[in-house]
Design a protein that fits this description.
The chain is 0% helix and 61% strand. It has 125 residues and is mainly β. The protein has a single domain, classed as Nucleic acid-binding proteins (OB fold (Dihydrolipoamide Acetyltransferase, E2P)). Strand 2 and strand 3 form a beta hairpin. The protein is globular, with a radius of gyration of 16 Å. The chain starts with a strand and ends in a 16-residue tail after the last strand.
Length: 125
């Protein structure tokens, strides 16, 4: 299942080469919502993996973006303890407004998005 979130690119980090065959890049989106006249900010950390790490190359901190992502969860066991890790894995980033206030219609999508949701034409009904 795919999700989306829009907000300001608060920070983007350099790509990390974790192993010989795995790399990731993390970034944070700031969202703001109004509740009973008060403003609350949320800072949501995402990651891009493998070839998708390049999705952030042309986007600057402060730009307004829409992130399309999947939720990935892993279980680990070590020394008799069990833990769980949840990752928000971005597979598409749409550039809405630059930090300078310029509207952009740019769409940064990886060439391979195997977990991307199907389009309406693919539905069986």
């Amino acid at each position: 299942m795919a999700y989306e979130l829009s907000g300001k690119l608060e920070v983007k980090y350099d790509t990390q080469q974790i192993t010989d065959t795995f790399k990731k890049r993390e970034f944070v989106i700031k969202t703001t919502e109004e509740v009973n006249g008060r403003s609350f900010s949320n800072y949501v950390r995402f990651q891009c993996v493998q070839d998708r790490t390049a999705l952030l190359d042309k986007i600057k901190e402060g730009d307004q973006v829409k992130v399309l992502f999947n939720i990935r969860g892993n279980r680990w066991e070590k020394e008799g303890r069990t833990g769980y890790i949840t990752n928000l894995e971005a597979w598409r980033i749409e550039h809405l407004v630059s930090a300078e206030g310029i509207d952009r219609e740019a769409d940064y999508t990886s060439n391979s998005a195997p977990d991307a949701p199907s389009t309406a034409d693919d539905l069986p009904f």
